[in-house]
Design brief:
about 650 residues; 13-stranded mixed β-sheet; mainly beta; elongated
């Protein structure tokens, strides 16, 4: 028998975001070392080597596991301890920006990733991770993307080297608190680079059918909900499949339904809460057409919390796992929250959609009614399915397909894959899927052991429920042209909300005006320094959504008042300024008389220190750069 619940393959190396390959939730952009003015950062970094595992020992362990149908391991986490204080290199650029870089290597890995025990970043600071040859990049990551500052993981990048780079503008004086606690070392499986797949072992079997073949044309919505899972169990890495699922509130709670055995490792150890924070979820990994050619596009999310599993003390185990992602699925991912059916009705036909062997999304078709069966117990917990030959192949399931959804003829999930005997050589041998009717409320009596409480939070008693998509909703989103300004400067806001929007309502804390109903308000000014909240509420026909962010209004001059007559002037920190122009700083008294004037030419810095008049008084500073003119009152106290 083929035990899919104990076999996984890993496929997880990712592409440069600008190619629109694999991308973790991130801000985008590039680190300072990627730009021409980062030439100072192009010098060679010292390489910190992390001792690679004993490959012969790993192979011996894997061979032993194979005898007992244990999980197919493809990577491990190697313990480490790197911080901004004990490793890497700090650099201060001429404009005052600060950069920390750490170059890591673990020899002969086919992929390398980072596990953080702590990430606490100052406001406006960020970090990136990229390959040493600059060909693959993920980031920027700010404090908002790192799961609250605790345990965090990055998707592995190809090869055995990577660089982490921290960037902070000159105005940021706080230091980051970054602790890298482990290096993810991939030693077998498949890697992806430059949108092409390179396998170190065979991927999906030849008889499999790509989801975008004609067999998948009627299942375009459902496929958008099917995801790959990279699980982390006690420092080992495995692979499974799963699906977003809808609930009766239709509130797009990011639930992923998979199989419980996907959280089990060697010796049946289970994923801890900290392990779940390292799980990686892949959306939309598929070929654009029927052939195994063309660019693949995929997006990832990191981290989840366990919601429900079978009761370990119950003899009834239908092998289900419900987790909740740590953040909502971005609209960019085009998610579909699949519907479900918990009835006892045997579906006459349908499909399974999955990621066998960590490959691109595949589809398997059945045209004979599902049969009720047991799986390693006497309880009728599973559906038995036999796959049919179709126009482009004979879909089956394989290691890595575990946890994937089985759909009935109405397009609803009726089961999740546990295991089976289908191979290309015996494609009609049956596979077994845990039944939704057992997942619902038969594995235990409390919410943590059933799906019912989570997928029917309104207690409707429905036995089936349709899938959900954002097509019927509105999603608020906007982009400011600046996030850092100075008093009396202005900001423009661009609405990028999704859905059929009927109205916009903006609130600008501390701003002038303080509100707006325009779609794209411009010229919003702030007269005082500080941190101010910007809120957008959008309304559609039957729904609304809100989103908020902050802008930072800084002093042009500090300290203010000044006690020693010296004052720091912030210039050219605004990314929208024309920094090709010289900077002029004029000092006027309160009668408008010019007291002193300074001129600074390239290369420009972010901060200059100038001497103010020695007599106690109030003065007006005027900073001119190109077409930009800014003013601020300064008090001198002796």
């Amino acid at each position: 028998m083929k035990y899919l619940f104990r076999s996984y393959i890993l496929l997880l190396l990712f592409l440069l975001p600008t190619i629109q390959g694999f991308s973790q939730i991130q801000r985008g952009g590039k680190p300072l070392s990627y730009y021409e003015h980062g030439f100072k950062l192009k010098s060679a970094l010292a390489i910190f080597d992390v001792v690679a595992p004993n490959r012969a020992m790993l192979q011996a362990q894997d061979n032993e596991s194979n005898k007992w149908n244990k999980a197919y391991r493809v990577g491990i986490d190697i313990p480490a301890f790197f911080t901004t204080e004990n490793a890497g290199e700090w650099t201060t650029l001429e404009n005052g920006n600060r950069v920390w870089r750490l170059h890591l290597r673990s020899k002969e890995a086919i992929g390398i990733g980072l596990i953080f025990s702590k990430v606490k970043l100052p406001q406006e600071a960020s970090f990136y991770v990229y390959t040493a040859n600059y060909s693959n990049l993920i980031g920027a990551f700010t404090q908002e993307e790192v799961n609250g500052g605790g345990i965090f993981a990055t998707q592995p990048l190809p090869g055995d080297e990577c660089v982490i780079e921290y960037n902070a503008p000159a105005s940021v004086k706080e230091t980051p608190d970054i602790e890298i606690s482990a290096i993810t070392y991939l030693y077998r499986g498949a890697t992806i680079a430059n949108n092409k797949i390179n396998y170190t072992r065979s991927a999906a079997a030849e008889c499999e059918v790509n989801v975008n073949c004609v067999e998948g044309m009627a299942w375009k919505k459902q496929k958008q909900g099917v995801v790959k899972l990279l699980t982390s169990v006690g420092g080992d890495k495995y692979y499974c499949s799963g699906s977003l699922v809808s609930n009766t509130k239709q509130d797009f709670t990011p639930y992923i339904l998979s199989a419980y055995h996907c959280s089990l490792g060697v010796n049946d150890i289970t994923s801890t809460d900290d392990d779940y924070k390292k799980w990686v979820f892949y959306f939309n990994y598929e070929y654009p057409g029927c052939e195994n050619i063309g660019n693949t596009e995929s997006h990832t999310m990191v981290g989840a919390t366990r919601i429900a599993i079978p009761d370990p003390n119950s003899p009834i185990k239908s092998d289900f796992l419900l987790v909740k992602l740590l953040s909502n699925v971005p609209l960019l991912y085009k998610p579909y929250y699949n519907g479900w059916d918990i009835s006892e009705i045997s579906s006459p036909s349908g499909v399974g959609i999955h990621h066998p062997e960590g490959d691109v999304k595949k589809i398997s078709t059945y045209i004979k009614p599902l049969q009720i069966t047991s799986y390693e117990s006497s309880y009728p917990t599973h559906w038995s399915v036999s796959w049919a030959k179709t126009e482009n192949g004979h879909g089956i399931t394989e290691p890595g397909s575990s946890g994937s959804p089985l759909f009935n003829d109405k397009g609803l999930i009726v089961g999740t894959l546990t295991g089976g005997r289908s191979y290309c050589s015996t494609p009609e041998d049956p596979d077994s899927y845990g039944r939704m009717s057992y997942h619902w409320d038969k594995n235990g009596n409390t919410p943590e052991y059933q799906l019912k409480s989570w997928l029917d939070p309104l207690s409707t008693g429905k036995t089936s429920f349709v899938g959900s998509t954002f097509n019927n909703s509105v999603i608020a989103n906007f982009i400011p042209n600046k996030t850092i300004i100075y008093p009396d400067a202005t900001i423009d806001f661009k609405d990028v909300s999704a859905g059929k929007i009927k109205s916009w309502q903006w609130t600008f804390e501390g701003g002038s005006p303080s509100s707006s109903s325009q779609q794209n308000p411009a010229g919003i000014s702030f007269n005082h320094t500080g941190k101010f909240k910007i809120l957008l509420r959008v309304e559609g026909e039957n729904s609304f959504d809100t989103i908020s962010t902050y802008v930072y209004v800084r002093q042009l001059a500090y300290p203010n008042p000044t006690l020693d007559g010296n004052i720091n002037i912030v210039v050219n920190a605004d990314s929208n300024q024309d920094n090709n122009h010289d900077v002029y700083i004029d000092i006027f008294d309160m009668q408008g008389r010019l007291i002193n004037q300074y001129k600074f030419s390239k290369p420009l810095k972010n901060v200059y220190t100038i001497a103010m008049p020695k007599s106690s008084n109030m003065y007006i500073l005027q900073i001119k750069q190109g077409q930009t003119v800014q003013t601020q009152k300064v008090i001198v106290v002796n």
